[in-house]
Amino acid sequence: MITQSRQTDIDHLVVTARTLAEGMAWVSERLGVSMMPRVGGKHIRMGTHNALLPLGPGVYLEVIAIDPAAPSPGRARWFGLDHLGSDANPRLAHWVVRCDDIETTAQASPIAPGRVENMRRAGLRWLITVAADGSMACDGLMPSLIQWQTRPHPAAILSERGCRLRRLELSHPRGRELTQALQAIYLNPARVQVQEGPQARLAAVILTPDGERVLE
Questions:
Q1: Strand 9-16 relative to strand 60-66, pairing
Q2: The pTM is what?
Q3: How many CB atoms lie within 10 A of CB 127?
Q4: Cα–Cα distance measured from residue 135 to residue 46, given in angstroms and rounded to the nearest whole number
Q5: Residue 54 and residue 60 in contact, taking contact as beta carbons nearer than 8 Å
Q6: Is the peptide bond between 152 and the residue preceding it cis, with omega within 30 degrees of 0?
Q7: CA atoms within 13 A on the CB side of 45
Q8: Which of 1, 19, 96, 105 has its CA 20 to 30 A from that of 85?
């Protein structure tokens, strides 16, 4: 069983988009904060690339899209990117929780977050849970798990934009089960609100230089 000393916390938010440019423009428009110059890189194993925006100590927002210059990875890409339609708009699709023992944490969850895989990008290395078919549990509301194997944390090297994550708001028909799963992985509840609702909804309340804005 996971002990309280291994409490997990929000690591980053995931915005999916057909192209990186579309996703960055969508975030910039809604938050009123530029994502340029872009900071991120390529995920060779997944055929994707990303751009990052800091949201406070240890937290960032990731815009991710299929890399048109990359060859097919020969596997399902993460975060449901293979299933984005030609008319799909950018959206807050998922979130990722940081832990220090990913195997034990994944086993503790009653909602399977995926299998643990090794990833790397530039000088970064990490373990992350990924479903074999690239899907996201509970319509993206059950977080993936990540365990960083390199330091510093990516958020520590990003240029400050004056944005801070206030809280996540989750609503899902399986809200009670989702709450139990988050408790099972010892998620710090300070910034996460979960309720049962007729439809899946993931929203991030973010404090910007111009006040609170919501991504969903």
A1: parallel
A2: 0.95
A3: 17
A4: 14
A5: yes
A6: yes
A7: 13
A8: 96
